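Feature request, filed as a ticket because there's no other form

It would be nice if the structure record came with a short human-readable summary line next to the C-alpha cells. Right now we just get the raw output. Example of a typical job, pasted below so the devs can see what we mean:
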Amino acid sequence: MTAKHSPLFLGIDTGGTYTDAVLWSEEGGPKGKVLAKAKALTTRHDLAVGISGAVDAVLERAGTDLAAIKLVSMSTTLATNALVEGQGGRVALIMIGFSEADLARDGLKTALGTDPVVFCPGGHDVHGNAAKLDLSGLEAALPELGRSVSGFAVCAYFATRNPAHELAARDLIRDKTGLPVTASHELSAKLGGPRRALTTLLNARLISMIDRLVAATEGFLAKRGIAAPLMVVRGDGALVSAAFARQRPIETILSGPAASLVGARHMTGLDDAMVSDIGGTTTDVAVLDQGRPRLDPEGATVGGFRTMVEAVAMRTFGLGGDSEVALEDGALDPKILLGPRRLVPLALAGMVHGEAVTSELERQLRAPNPGRMDGRFAVRTGVPDRLAAGLTGPEAKLYEAIGAAPLALDRLLSSNAQNATLNRLVARGLVHICGFTPSDAAHVLGKQSNWDPAAARLGAELFSRRRDGRGQTIAATPEALAERVLTTLTRWSAEYILETAFAEDGLDGAATVAHALVQRAVDAHPGIARFTVALDRPVIGLGASAPLHYAGLPPLVGNGCIVPEDTDVANALGAVVGQVRVSAEARVSQPKEGLFRLASGQTVRDFTDEAKAIAAAEADVRAIAAERARDAGTDSAEVDVATEFKVSTIEGQRMFIEAHVVAVASGRPRIAV
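Raw output as currently delivered:
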C-alpha cells in the first residue's frame, strides 16, 4: 500500500487500438517510479469501457489509496488517426470576405470534401478596418444546416487583425442552432486565411470526438471517486486542462506522439535521438535535440494537410500493426502494400465475435477460387446516431444493412458503386472494415498471442491464395505470407525514419532517397554504385510492438535502436511528466503615419504614441497568457514576453512598420490538495 502522503499521478493514453494506463510516483529516484501499468482495447463505441479496463487494472495492481491520486493526465492519438484516415463529423464552413476561388488554396477544398460551405460578404483589411458584413445568407441556411451537421467552422478575412465579424457569425449560429462553433481567430494569430480556415474546419470536425473522450474519462473518474484535475497533452507536448482541450481539439493532433517524446526522453535520458513510435494506426517519427522535441514553426502536417497548429516536428505515416495489407495492382511480381487505412484485425474480430467471423472465413476458403473481397468484413463503429446525419439514400440503406456484428463484404456488396459508398461510411467514422493486418501476421507466426490466432491464420490462408501477374499464388504458406508482411513493415519503418532525417536536414526528394537506400541495404545485389547511410543518433523505439518490428532496424538505419522497458506505455508516462505551456500574441501596426493600432485578443485599440502602444501590447499579452495558463490548469505560471519589430530606414529616419509581441506562460499543473 502506497503511503497516503505520497502524491500519485495517473497517466492515460487512448490510441486507435489500445488504451494504456500508468500509475507514477515522483519518488524513487530522478526518473520517479512506475508503480503499475496496463492495457485495454480502445472501445470507440464507448470510450469509457476501454479507459476503465486499463485504469482499473492499474489500480488493482498498485493496490493504492485512490485519495493519493492528485493528477490525471491523458494523451490521445484519436484526433491524429481521424485526420490520417479522413474521418470526422460533418461540419459547415462559413467563409466571410472570401471568394470560392480561395477554396483551391492550401488543400482547403480537398479537406472540405462534400461538407457544405457558405460565403458571406464582410471581413477586414490588414489594419483591421471592416468591410460591410452581411449574414443574411447564413441565417437563411441555418435551419437546414442545423439538422445536417455536427458543428460549424467560421473564418473571416483578416480575423486575426479584427475578429468582430467572426464573433457576430459565431453568436448567430449558437443562437439559432445551439451547435458547437469554432472561430479561426481562437486557434491562430497567423495570417493566411485559407490555411486558417482549414485548421478551423478540422477543429470543428474533431470536437465531438474529443468531447466524447473527455466526457468518458471524467465520467469514469467520478464513478471511481478520483477527485483529481484532468489534463490533456497538446501537440507540442504541453499539458492543458480538459476544458481547454474540449474547445480546441485540433491542438491535440499529435498529442499521443508528443507525449511519447516526453516519455522517451524521461525513460532513456537521451538528449539526441530519433524517436519512432509505432501504434495500431500510425508510425510517428520525430527528432530529439538537446533534450527537447523539435517543433514545426510552419504548423503540424497530418493526413496530408498543413495546419496552423504549433506541434512537434513530427512526421506521421499511415503504418502500424493494424494497417490494411493489400497487394500492388497489375504487377507481375506484386509488392505487399501497407496502410494508410486502419482495419480491425481479423484476430481481434475473431476474439470479440467468434463464430460469426471464423465460419465466414472457412466458407470463403472452401470456394475453388479466391474472391476479391475474401477476408473482409464491415461492422458499425457504434457512434451515436446523431453523427450519422446527412447520409445520402444509398449511404443510409447500406448503413442500415450493417450491424454490430461483422458482415462479410461478399454478402454485403454487389457492385463497385456500393464499395465506394461503403468507403464513404468508413470515412465518416460510422463503419469499420475488418481484414488482414500485420497484427494478424504476428499471430500467425506466434509472435503475438493476445487475440485469436485461428482467425488470423484463416485470413492469411485466404490472402496467400491471391494470384500474381503470372497466375501464381503470392505465398506458398500462411507463414510465408506473414513473414513477408512483417519484413515489409520493418523496411517501411526504416524508410520513414530515414525520410524524416533527410527532411529535417532540408534535403529534397527525402522519400525517394530513403526508399533507394533501404532497398540497397537489403538487396543481395546492391549494384555498381555502392553507398551506405548512417544516422548520427540512435533510434528510440516506442510502442507495444516496437520490440517485434524494430529488431531488424539497426542495419537499415546505420545506428542502434533502444527500446525502453516501459516502451508500451511511453505515451501514458509522458502525459504525467509534462508542463502546462500556453502563449498569447498581439500585433501593433501603423495604418497611417502617427497612428499605432494594437490588435490583441478580441480587441482593437488605437494609440498616437508607439511606445505606449507597445507597452499596452506587452501588458495585454502578459495578462492574456496568465489567464490562459490558469484556464489550462496551472496556478504557478511564469510569463516571458518577447517583442519583434519590423522597421525600415528612409533617408536616415527609422520608420515603424509592425511589432509582433508574444508572451509564453509555463508551469507545473495544479494538483488536488
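Something like this underneath would help us a lot:
The first strand starts at residue 8 and ends at 14.
The radius of gyration is 26 Å.
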